[in-house]
Specification:
There is one protein chain. This protein has about 280 residues and is α/β, with parallel strands linked by helices. The chain folds into two domains: about 230 residues, Phosphoenolpyruvate-binding domains (TIM Barrel), CATH 3.20.20.60; about 40 residues, no CATH class. Helix content is about 40%, strand content about 15%. Strand 1, helix 2 and strand 2 form a beta-alpha-beta unit. Bound molecules: 3-methyl-2-oxobutanoic acid. The site of 3-methyl-2-oxobutanoic acid has 11 residues, from strand 6.
């Protein structure tokens, strides 16, 4: 049986929570086998899978497709799907309908960006039985307003606002909160101030868990290399090298070899030769 929201909640103050993004069946299967606690179908898919400059153009149809694939690949992890830009901001009924679509696509929970201003929306989704992960600090869906990627909660006033937001999300019923690019000190204060787990990305080691974009961890995305993302592999150079070897084998006739070919029965070949002369 796969992990439940209750399992994730029980990890607070006992075990660190590991989260990784996934957008397709194969990656989902591999990360699940590696033992992560949650698979996040992030709207970062817009950048790393679809080549957009940011997450703004991502649609519900795209997120549903990615979610279906990830859900098919997991056995143990909890699947959380991101609600894309403008799929929950217009009204509570819009948010409920789209959260429902993601659950019908295989998500166990949804994530949406926003602090105190989103508390009623989160409450409405939780009330109908869909678990919600909050997302505060840097919010990629509002990069334009935030004028790019900036560390959050660097001043006392900004810190107080963020702490208040975390408390509001907890009160609204969120089961955990992503903290993106939040100063280490404030992440620690938030983690100690709420009873639900905090999942950090670029927010230091004191969060209850960590999340990374799988393309960053594997060294597959070259356009942006965030300081906070540890690259455990540099797969893009390995991939380029492998494809170059393939190309050189094809052009030199080295591939495909006998071991990659299928042969007819000798007798059938003889009959064929006779027939075609
Ligand atoms: O979309 C995403 O991948 C995310 C993570 C950065 C937390 O929201």
């Amino acid at each position: 049986m796969s992990k439940s929201v209750r399992d994730i909640l029980s990890m607070k103050n006992s075990k660190k929570i590991t989260v990784i993004t996934a957008y397709d069946y194969t990656t989902s299967q591999l990360c699940d086998k590696a033992g992560v606690d949650m698979l996040l179908v992030g709207d970062s898919a817009g950048m790393v899978m679809l080549g957009y400059d940011n997450t703004i153009p991502v649609t519900m149809d795209q997120m549903c497709l990615f979610t279906e694939a990830v859900a098919r690949g997991r056995q143990n992890a909890l699947v959380v799907a991101d609600m894309p830009f403008m799929s929950y901001q217009s009204s509570k009924s819009q948010a409920i309908e789209n959260a429902g679509r993601l659950v019908k696509s295989g998500a166990d929970a949804v994530k949406l960006e926003g602090g105190t201003e989103m508390k009623d929306t989160i409450h409405a989704i939780v009330e109908i039985g869909i678990p919600v992960m909050g997302h505060i600090g840097f919010q990629p869906q509002t990069t334009t307003v935030q004028e790019g990627y900036k560390v959050q909660a660097k001043t006392k006033d900004a810190a107080v606002r963020l702490i208040d937001s975390a408390k509001a999300l907890e009160k609204a019923g969120a089961f955990c909160i992503t903290l993106e690019m939040v100063t280490r000190e404030v992440s620690k204060i938030i983690s100690n101030s709420v009873s639900i787990p905090t999942i950090g990305i670029g927010s230091g080691p004191d969060c209850d868990g960590q999340v990374l974009v799988v393309h960053d961890l594997l060294g597959l995305y070259e356009k942006i290399k965030p300081k906070f993302a540890k690259r455990y592999l540099e797969l893009s150079s390995d991939v380029i090298q492998a494809v170059q070897s393939y190309k050189s084998d094809v052009t030199s006739g080295k591939f495909p070899g006998a071991e990659h070919s299928f042969l007819m029965e000798k007798s059938e070949l003889e009959r064929l030769k006779k027939e075609i002369g």
